[in-house]
Design a protein that fits this description.
alpha/beta; Rossmann fold; ABC transporter ATPase like fold; 3-stranded antiparallel sheet; 7 helices; 9 strands
C-alpha cells in the first residue's frame, strides 16, 4: 500500500545545509533533504559514511550539527537501535511503558505487545527473550508512543537471516497500519528494497542517489544493481 497522497504533500523532516564534522573531517557536507510525512525511507552507505550521524541529527541527539538554520522534525519521535536496549531489571511490559504514565498506559502497552506478536510475554524478563523477541519488544516500546517519525538504526543487523525476514514483514505491516514517517539506516541493499518506498545512498557526505522504489517485485533486480553501483560494487554477487 502506498502512502496516502495527502500525507506526502507535507514534509515530516526538512534539512537544509546540514553539516557535521569530527576532528576536522567532514562527515555530512551541506545536506538538503525533505522526508514527506508517511513515507518509508531507507538510508544506505558504507561504514563511516555518516548514516547514523544523520539519523542522530534528525532525532535531536546531536547538538553540534551545523546548517543554514533549518532542521525540522515532528514532535513525537521514536528511535529503534540494533541493540534492543531493554532494561534487564524490568519486565517486558514495564520496559515498553518506560517513561509513560496515565490510566491508559498499561492498556496501550499490552496492545502494542500484541501487535508485535508478544501477547502473553508481558511479565517475562528480557533475559528470557530471543533476539527477535527483544527487537519486537523494542518496536512495541517505540510504537506505544504513537510516533510521527520512527528512526531505525540497523534494527535487524544482529538477527539471523530467517528472523530478519520475519521482522521485515512485521515492520512493513506496522508501518502500513500506523503510517509514521520512517527513516531506516541499513547496510543491506536487499533490506532497503524490500522495506522502503525510497532509498537514499549517502556518499562523501552528500546524497549520491535518491531512488524511488516501485513495489513491483519484478523491478527489484534492477534496483539492486543501481544501488550496488552507487555503493561502488560493480558485480551482482550473492
Amino acid at each position: 500500500m502506498a502512502p496516502h497522497t495527502e500525507q506526502l504533500t507535507r514534509p515530516a523532516v526538512q534539512l537544509r545545509g546540514l553539516t557535521r564534522s569530527f576532528g576536522g573531517r567532514t562527515v555530512l557536507d551541506g545536506i538538503d533533504l525533505d522526508l514527506p510525512a508517511g513515507q518509508f525511507t531507507a538510508l544506505l552507505g558504507h561504514s563511516g559514511s555518516g548514516k547514523s550521524t544523520l539519523l542522530r541529527a534528525v532525532a535531536g541527539l546531536d547538538h553540534e550539527v551545523a546548517g543554514s538554520g533549518q532542521l525540522t522534525a515532528p514532535g513525537r519521535v521514536s528511535v529503534v537501535f540494533q541493540d534492543s536496549r531493554l532494561l534487564p531489571w524490568r519486565r517486558v511490559l514495564d520496559n515498553v511503558l518506560l517513561g509513560l504514565d496515565g490510566k491508559d498506559a498499561e492498556r496501550k502497552g499490552r496492545e502494542a505487545l500484541e501487535e508485535v506478536g508478544l501477547k502473553g510475554r508481558e511479565r517475562a524478563w528480557p533475559s528470557e527473550l530471543s533476539g527477535g523477541e527483544a527487537q519486537r519488544a523494542a518496536l512495541a516500546r517505540s510504537l506505544v508512543r504513537e510516533p510521527e517519525l520512527l528512526l531505525a538504526d540497523e534494527p535487524f543487523g544482529a538477527l539471523d537471516a530467517l528472523t530478519r525476514i520475519k521482522m521485515h514483514a512485521l515492520l512493513r505491516e506496522l508501518w502500513e497500519r500506523h503510517r509514521p514517517s520512517v527513516l531506516l539506516v541499513t547496510h543491506d541493499v536487499d533490506e532497503a528494497i524490500v522495506l522502503a518506498d525510497r532509498v537514499l545512498v549517502l556518499e562523501q557526505g552528500r546524497i549520491g542517489l535518491d531512488l524511488t522504489i516501485d513495489r513491483d517485485a519484478r523491478a527489484r533486480g534492477e534496483y539492486r544493481l543501481r544501488l550496488l553501483a552507487a555503493l561502488g560494487v560493480t558485480e551482482d554477487v550473492r
